[in-house]
Write a structure and sequence with these properties.
Elements: H1 2-6, H2 10-32, H3 59-72, H4 77-109, H5 126-146, H6 148-173, H7 176-202, H8 210-226, H9 235-246, H10 251-267, H11 269-282
Helix pairs in contact: 2-7, 2-10, 3-4, 4-6, 4-7, 4-8, 7-8, 7-10, 8-9, 9-10
């Protein structure tokens, strides 16, 4: 991979940098649609924060930041919590729909080979192993939900929050324009990130159709959201590399492209995200 990075076409890296920031704007648009109150996209400085896309890194922290911002804008506590959670969930819904709709077509066409995922290329790759792991996790969760004590504990904690949230969700459903703004912003962010991923791959002489890139990025995002580590670190990278190789990309190219993509969408953003957050705190925006 070091050799691949040395031979990279870094003009494409510039494209990656620009597109990565464009995705943030669309995520901010989606955030506007999550609340009834009209909020400015920018006022007196940037109010665009790190997007919920990316491989769903730090989802809890992002949701908490959104909630605090809504509270500072005068929204009631319950509404702020609901709106922050709904905005995050909207991104997950879009990602889930993309994967569910696209995967059957890709598998039936033969373009996607799960047995090759992970770069092994030996017919027993990580893709099949990952699918089996997901099935096992789903079965274990189902068994736990059959245990009355466990089910009662979960329902007792979740139901009151769901009841409170449903009031605001119903209000949002009666405002189709805001709903479309929220879902459309999240969808646009996913599209931009898929193009960004394609630019990262082109930096190393590779290319894939847009639909393939969209599925790879979205699937990795879902994996990152499930991983119990900050920013989905490691899990997202594994998902991206596994997705690339499942579509026939050389493992060396896949690793290098993943590194460049994550460099400008996850590793470096905290460098300017931290002073932005400090700026917002000084002005009572957080």
């Amino acid at each position: 991979m070091v050799d691949a990075l040395a031979d990279a076409d870094w003009a494409w890296a510039i494209v990656v940098v620009v597109l990565a920031q464009v995705s943030v704007v669309f995520t901010a648009v989606a955030l506007q649609g999550a609340v009834v109150q009209r909020l400015p996209l920018a006022s007196g400085g940037p109010r665009v924060r790190r997007p919920v896309h990316r491989p769903r890194r730090g989802t809890v922290a992002i949701t908490a930041t959104n909630i605090r911002y809504f509270q500072r804008q005068g929204l009631a506590g319950t509404t702020a919590v609901t709106s922050g959670v709904v905005s995050s969930l909207a991104g997950g819904v879009i990602q889930f729909v993309i994967v569910v709709v696209s995967l059957p077509f890709l598998l039936s066409s033969g373009r996607l080979q799960l047995s090759d995922a992970g770069g092994g290329g030996d017919g027993g790759g990580g893709g099949s192993l990952f699918v089996r792991a997901v099935i096992v996790l789903a079965v274990i969760t189902g068994i736990l939900m059959l245990i009355p004590r466990f089910r009662s504990s979960v329902v007792g904690k979740v139901k009151p929050q769901v009841d409170k949230a449903w009031v605001d969700v119903r209000d949002l459903l009666r405002r189709p324009r805001q709903l479309m703004t929220m879902l459309g912003g999240q969808a646009a962010s996913q599209v931009v990130l898929a193009v960004t991923l394609g630019a990262s791959l082109r930096a190393f002489g590779g290319s894939l159709p847009f639909v393939d890139l969209l599925v790879i990025n979205t699937f990795a995002a879902l994996i990152g959201g499930l991983a119990p580590v900050p920013g989905g670190l490691g899990a997202v990278e594994a998902g991206l590399i596994g997705g690339f190789t499942a579509f026939g990309v050389d493992s060396t190219q896949a690793g290098a492209a993943t590194f460049v993509f994550r460099l400008f969408t996850a590793y470096l953003p905290p460098a300017w995200g931290w002073p932005t957050m400090a700026w917002m705190r000084r002005r009572a925006l957080l």
